[in-house]
Amino acid sequence: MATVELRFSALPEHVRTARLVAAAVARRAGVDESVLDEVRLAVGEACSRAVGLHQHGDAGGAVRVALIDQEKRFVIEVGDGAGSLSELGASGDGDAGESPDVSDDALGLAVITGLVEEVEVGRDEDGGLIRMSWPVNPA
């Protein structure tokens, strides 16, 4: 199992780099070409969400992206260090009357769920963690 790890400052301009690296590693891992746009978009949404949570809560630390090439799946984990702020839209039950940050967070999670066949939204010791996976073509 090969793993590529990225850590970047919670700045919007770094999201594009994460998307490009994720697509390149996914292609090399054997993810079907027709799915690479979905990989790029899902990683962009997850990283943008993490950046937004960091900026909203003035959280320190970095956004973490792990790209994991397993035998039959390609897994991407995007983690933030935003602590309890990571739970804002995780339930997906945000009301229109809530702050824009909460509704944007829920919308971002809905987009990710629509793009990725297998997605888990949870927590680790640093904050939120989004785990997404796609099948790989046999070599």
TrEMBL record:
A GO term for molecular function: protein serine/threonine kinase activity
Keyword terms: Kinase, Serine/threonine-protein kinase, Transferase
Pfam families per the UniProt record, alphabetical: HATPase_c_2
CDD domains according to UniProt: HATPase_RsbW-like
UniProt domain Histidine kinase/HSP90-like ATPase: residue ranges: 8-134
InterPro entries, sorted: Anti-sigma-factor_SerPK, HATPase_C_sf, HATPase_dom
Top-rank taxon, per record: Bacteria
Gene3D superfamilies in the cross-refs: Histidine kinase-like ATPase, C-terminal domain (3.30.565.10)
Name of the protein described by the UniProt record: Anti-sigma regulatory factor
